[in-house]
Amino acid sequence: MRPRVSVFLALSLDGFIAGENGDLSWLEAFSSDSPDETGYTSLMNDIDVIVMGRNTYDTVIAFDP
């Protein structure tokens, strides 16, 4: 089986999705979206490896125990 690369990104025009001091409050507007609606569930079921930066990891690990 050939390796495949999938990209799931959140980005902005200035290259930063967080505001000053790491503020992510703008994401609250999307908190009612289910993982199925965003494609997240499908992505997670279809991957073997995740590559992310340290700041993203620190943020995500706090969301998911």
Automatic annotation (TrEMBL):
A Gene Ontology BP annotation from the UniProt entry: riboflavin biosynthetic process
Occurrences of domain Bacterial bifunctional deaminase-reductase C-terminal (ranges): 3-65
InterPro entries the UniProt entry points to: DHFR-like_dom_sf, RibDG_C
Protein's name in the database: Deaminase
Domain of life, per lineage: Bacteria
GO MF terms held by the record: 5-amino-6-(5-phosphoribosylamino)uracil reductase activity
Pfam families in the record: RibD_C (PF01872)
